[in-house]
Amino acid sequence: MTDLIPLTVFGAETPRQTAPGALALAERPDIAIASLALRRGTAGAAPFGLLLPGPGGLAAAQAHLAFWTGAGQWMVLAEGLADTDFAAALRDAAPGCSVTEQTDGWTVVDVTAPEPLIARLLERLVNLPPEALAPGRATRCQMHHLPVHALRLSSSRLRLLAMRSATASLWHALETAGQRLALP
Amino acid sequence: MTRIPGGLIDRSQTLTFSFNGRSYTGHPGDTLASALLANGVRLMGRSFKYHRPRGPVSAGSEEPNALVTLRSGARAEPNTRATVAELYEGLTARSQNHVGPLGFDALAVNDLLSPFFAAGFYYKTFMWPRAFWEKLYEPMIRRAAGLGALSGEADPDAYDRGYLHCDLLVIGAGAAGLSAALTAARAGAQVVLADEDFRLGGRLLAESDPLDEAPAPDWVAAVDAELRALPNVRILSRTTVFGAYDHGIFGAVERVADHLPEPGALVRQTLWRITAKRSVLAAGATERHIPFAANDRPGILLAGALRAYANRWAALPVARPQDRIAVFTNNDDGHRTALDLLAKGANLLGVIDPRVDAPRFGDYQLFAGAQVTGTHGRLGLSSIEITRDGRADWLECHALGVSGGWNPNLHLASHHRGRPVWNEELLAFVPGEGGPRGLIPAGACAGRGSTSAALKDGARAAQAALSELGISAALPRLPGAEDKPLRQSAFWHVSGKARAWVDFQNDVTVKDIALAHKENMRPVEHLKRWTTLGMATDQGKTANVTALAVMAELTGKSVAETGTTIFRPPYTGVSLSVLGGGDTGKDFRPTRLTPTHHWAEAQGAAFTEVGPWLRAQYFPRPGETHWRESVDREATAVRSAVGLCDVTTLGKIDVQGSNAGEFLDRVYSNMMGTLKVGRVRYGLMLREDGHLYDDGTCARMAEDHYVVTTTTGNAGLVYRNMEFARQCLWPELDVQILSTTDAWAQIAVAGPRSRELLSRIVDGFDLSNAAFPFMACASLTVCGGLRARIFRISFSGELAYEIAVPARYGAALMQRLMEQGADLGVTPYGTEALGVLRIEKGHAAGAELNGQTTAAMLGLGRMVSDKKDSIGAVMSRREGLAGDRRRLVGLLPEDPNVPVVPGSHLFTPGAPQDMAHDQGWITSACVSPHVGRSIGLGVLEDGDCRIGELILAVNPLEGTKAALRVVPPHFVDPEGARLRD
Amino acid sequence: MLIPHPLLGLRDAQEFTYLGDAALLDRPSPEGEGAEAAFCDYVFLRGNPAGVHRELWFHEHGDRSWLVVTRNTLTHEILGAELASEVAKALRGAAE
Predict the structure, then answer these.
(1) Across the interface, do C7 and A71 touch by the CB < 8 Å criterion?
(2) Strand B826-828 and strand B642-646: pairing?
(3) B720: Cβ–Cβ under 8 A, 6 or more apart, which residues?
(4) Is there a contact between B216 and B209 (Cβ–Cβ < 8 Å)?
(5) Cβ–Cβ of B248/C44 closer than 8 Å?
(6) What domain of life does the native source organism fall in (chain A) (predicted)?
(7) Are A71 and C85 inside 8 Å of each other by CB?
(8) Is residue A45 within 8 Å of A94, Cβ to Cβ?
(9) C61 and A141: CB-CB below 8 Å?
C-alpha cells in the first residue's frame, strides 16, 4: 500500500456530507468506477452477474451497479472498491470489452430526500421529463452547465456522478437548491 | 378617499406605502394602482413624448400609462406597471419622466410644441448637421423622452431557473383556464396552470355576475382548493408565460418575491422553461378604447378596468365619492360597467353610446347616438363634451369609462408567425392557422368571451388536447353563468381636429396615423416604425388594433386587408437578471479545479483562467514584488534543476479497440499505427480544410490501447471530432473512446535533475536512458504501490517526464515530490513559466495553432504523412496552402531593452507598412531569462530562408515599432540533446 | 426544440451541438484525380435549403451519439432522427 494519502475533491481526507434544507448530500469516494464498451464481435457481457441495461437503464447486483451511457457502453460502479484496480477486475469479468478506469474521473454524490423533494430538486437542476429519472432510470444529462450522470437509485435516492474537477460547482448548485427548496 | 364597500381586499389588515414621498394606506389584495385610486390619487406619471399628465387606463398588465419606479437604491425597478404591482407593507414608488414635481413638469412645454413632434419627427428634424446627432440631439432626446432610469448598482437579488414537463399547460386562470385545468386535473393528466395575477380567477374576480347564483370568486376558490389538493397539478401564480417556442416549449417568469418588501432568502424571480405536450391558451381579452379629443386625462379609463376597480378593489378613480362618472361605449359590454357602478352607489352621469339604437339596460341616462368630443381637467378629468346631433354640451364629469370592444389576447398563438384572422362579427382579430403546434386557444382569447362560453370552451379544449395524448377526460359540471350576446358597432374613433390618443405610452395620435398615411407609410410595418405605434414597453396592447382600424378607414381598405404586425416574445417585459438564470460572479459558470489546486492555494499561487479551468499561474515567494521575478525564477529552476507543474488540464482520451491504431492514423496527420507499445509520439490534428487545429501526444499503452492528449482548450472539440470520425466517417472500425481527463492527476517533472527526483519515488522502475528513453511510456507503481503512468515527454526542451496517478492522489504526489526534491532545488512552476519555457524551445501552442496556420508554416510539414489518408490531408496539399511560404521563426530585438509585442505585424525595413506588404505576424513573446531579453516567435514570409535578416515589427494598436533579428525558432538546445540525455 | 432521439426519446435541443448538412457523412475518396476538387466541395459547399433538410446533431450532453435529424428549416418541424452511425454504415454498404 502506498503511504500517500488520498484527498477528496474538496482537499479533505474525509468525504463531505452536508444537509442543505431537507436534502442529505454525501460524497462517496469509496465507490470504484470503470467504463465498459463492447468491441466489434462481442455480443454482450455480464460482469459480476450484472444484466447490462438498455438505454436509460440501471441494473444492480449486490455491491455492483451498471448503467447505460451510450450505444454499447456502460459505466460499472462497485461500492468499497475505490482503492483497488477495479478496471482490471472488470476487464477480467468482461472479456472482449474495452474497459477504462474512471474511479477518479467522477465524484459520486448521493442525494437523499423524501420523494417529492427529489422531484422538486430535479425540476431546478435538469431539463428532463420526470420519467427519464424515475426510480431505476439513469441518464447522462446537463446540470448547472455540467455533464452529469444521474442515477435514480430509488424514490428517495439520487446518485450523481459529477466531473471530478467541477464537483465544487455542482455541489454549490445542489446546496443552493436544497436551501431554497426548504423555504416555504 | 374613494374606497367603497365590497371587493376582494382584506380590510382586516392595513398596509402603509408611499408614492412620491407621501404616505398612504391600502390593504392586502390591492395593487399599487388600486390603492392610489382608493386614496384619491390618479395622476401617476407623465407621457413619453409630450409629458402629458397620466393616470392608469387599465387594471392589468396591458397598462400603458401608470409606470412607476418601484423600490429604491439597488432594488429600484423602473417602468413597473402600478396596475400589477402587488401592494406590500412599506412599498415605495416614484413617478417617472418629469422635471420638477409630477404636478408641474417643466418638460410639459413639449406638449405646447407638439406640432414639431409629429410622426417621423426624429427622421425629419434631426438630420442635420450630421455631427449634432451624437453630441446634441440624441442626449437631448434621451433626457426629454423616456422612462425611468436604472440605479446603476448591481442587482442584489437572487434568481433561479427551473424546468417543468407536463401533459397540459394552461395559460391563464380565468373562466376558460380554470375549467380547462379542472377537466385535465380530474382526468389525472400532469397539469401546469400559470397565471400572471396573484390570485386565480382572471376576469371572474372583476365581474359582478354570479356563477350558479353565488359570487364568482366562491367558485374560483372551490376550484383553486380542489386543484391545489391534487398531486398532478402545479399552480404557478404570479407567473407570466411570456413566449411560445418550438415543439411545445414555453418560457415563463414566476415573480416569487416581488410582492414582498425584500426577498430575504427567497429568489426574486424564477425562469421556468416549460415543456408541454399540449397547451390551452386562455389568456383572455384586452379592452380597447375609443380615441377622441384629449382622451388621455387621468380619470379616463377603460370601462372594464373601471368596473374591475369598483368590483374587485372597491375603488373609484375619483377624488370624492360623489364625483360624477360616465361611460362612453360602442358596445353592450360598456353598459355593464354602468350597471355595476350604479349597484355600487356611484354617481353615474350616464352612458354615451354612438349607436342611435343603443339599448338601455337599467336606470341611467342614455346618450344614444352621442359621442364624447372633448375633455377638460389639467391633472385629471373634470368635464366632458358630449355631442349629439351636432349639439355639444359640456358636462361636469370626473371619471369616464371607455369601451371600444375587446381584443383577444392571442399573442402566444402568433409567436410562430401564425397570422391572426379578422372576424368581422366580433370586430376583432382571433387566432388563425399556423400557431404553435398543440396549442388550443380557448375562451375570450379565441373570441368566445361570455362567461358561459369561456367555461365551456376551456373544458372542451382540455378534453380535445388530452384525447390526442390518449387521455380521456370527462367534461366537468360547470356552473350556470352569464351568456350575454356581444353587440357592438364598428365605431373606431371620434373625428375631430384636436389630438386624440391611440397609443398612450408612445404618444401616438389619430393625427399621426393620418400623417403617416399622407406620407405613404401605409403598410402596418411602416406605420408602426414611422409613428412608433406599439413600440413602447406595453407593445401597444391597448392601441394596435384601433390604429389599424384608423389606417384602414384612411386607405379605404378593410381591417382584414390591412393586417397586423407580427407578435414576438416576450408577452410582457422580462428582466435580464432572470433570463441570466441567477448565477452571478464566480458561480456564473462552473469552474474546474486541478487535483493540486488546494495545495497550490496553500503555496500562495496566483491563478489564471484557462477556459473553465483555474490553473496556477505562478508561485510568488516572499520578497518577490513583481510576477516576472517569480516567473524568471521558476523557468530558471527548470533549466538548471527540476520543476513541477500540474498539467492535468490537458485533455486525455482513452482509445481502445482492435482498430485503434488505424483510427488514430486517420485522425492524426502523422502515423500512429506504427507506434510501438511503450512509446509516445507527438501528433498533429488538422481540420478537414487542411489547417492545423490541435496537437498533443499519443502514447501506446498496449497493442489495442492508446492514451491521447489534447490541448486544454480543445479537449471537448477533439473528443467531439473523434466521435464524429468514429460514428460518421468510419463506423466499420472497432474503436472505443472515452475522456479520462479528470481521472488522472498529471504532473510534469522537468529539468536536468528530473530523473534523479523521480528515481526516489518509483517502485524499482529503471529510469535510465537506455531502459526508458525519450518518448517512452509505461505503467508502473510509485510511492509504495500506487498505480501510475509515466511518459517521457518534454514541453520545455529539458529532460522531462509527466507522471500520472489517480486524481485523488495528485496533491499527495505533488507534496511528496516537493519533499523528495528539496535538496535538488525542486520548484513548482505555473502557466507563465510553462509559456516562457515553450517559447524558448520554439514549441507551438495555442497562439501558433490559431486556425490560420498549417503544419508547414510551423516547420512541421513532414508530419503530414502522404502515405495514408487522414482528416485534412488532401486539403493540406491544395495550392493555396502548400504554396504558403510563411514559416515559423524566432525573433530577437536588436536593442535588448525593447520588448517583443505579440500581435505585431512584420515588414521588410523600408517597405510600406500596409496589407499588401505584410510579411507575417508575431504569435508569441516573452521575456526569456535564458536569453536575457525579450524574445518572440512569429510566422514570416520565407522565414526559414531569412535567418539573420533584420525585420520591422509594427503594432499600430500599441503604437510600437521594433527592429528584430530573425533567428531559428529554438532559443535553447536547438539540437535537442538535453531532452534525449 | 425537442429532438426525437432514436434511443432516448424526446430530448431538449439544449443537450445537443449542431453541425449542419448531413452530407458530411459522405466523405470523398482521397484517391484519384478529382480528390482535391471533391474535398473542396465536401468542405466548403453545403446545402442550406429553406425546407426539409438532413442535419447532423451531436448529443454532447447525453449519450454522445451523432444523429441525422430531418428538419424543416422553415417550420422547425422535425420529421425524424436516426443514429448517424447507422446512416453511415448504410451509405458505405451502398457504395461498396
Answers:
(1) yes
(2) parallel
(3) C17, C58, C60
(4) yes
(5) no
(6) Bacteria
(7) yes
(8) yes
(9) yes
Architecture in CATH for domain C2-26+47-95: 2-Layer Sandwich (3.30)
Per the CB < 8 A criterion, the answer to whether B861 and B855 are in contact is yes
User: B743 and chain A: CB distance < 8 Å anywhere?
Assistant: yes
- Chain C residue numbers with beta carbons less than 8 Å from the beta carbon of B728 are 24-25, 56, 66, 84-85, 88
Spell out the domains of chain A, with CATH numbers in brackets.
17-182 (3.30.1360.120)
Average pLDDT over chain B, rounded to an integer: 94
Nearest beta carbon to residue B727 from set C17, C66, C78: C66
* pTM, two decimal places: 0.94
B48-59 pLDDT, tens digit per residue, is: 888 899 999 999
pLDDT, tens only, B823-864: 999 999 999 999 999 999 999 999 999 999 999 999 999 999
pLDDT digits (tens, 9 = 90+) for C23-82: 999 999 999 889 999 999 999 998 899 999 999 999 999 999 999 999 999 999 999 999
Kindly report, residue by residue over A50-98, the tens digit of the pLDDT.
999 999 999 999 999 999 999 999 999 999 999 999 999 999 999 999 9
Assess C6–A contact: CB distance below 8 Å, yes or no: no
Beta partners for residue A140, in sequence order:
A149
Q: Do C89 and B731 touch (CB under 8 A)?
A: yes
Q: Tell me if B728 and C24 make a contact (CB, 8 A cut-off).
A: yes
- For residue range B955-978, what is the model confidence (pLDDT) as tens digits? 998 899 999 999 999 999 999 899
Which among C35, C43, C89 has CB closest to B688? C43
pLDDT in tens, B875-898: 999 998 999 999 999 999 999 999
CB contacts < 8 A (A, B):
136
Residue B175, C-alpha cell as written in the block: 373562466
Q: What is residue B125's predicted lDDT score, i.e. its pLDDT? A: 63
Q: How far apart are CA B614 and CA B38, in angstroms?
A: 58
C14–A142: do the CB atoms touch at under 8 Å?
Answer: yes
C-alpha–C-alpha distance, residues B875 and B807, integer Å? 40
Could you give the C-alpha distances from B70 to A11, B36, B336, in angstroms and in order? 46, 14, 33
Q: B731: nearest CA in chain A? A: A40
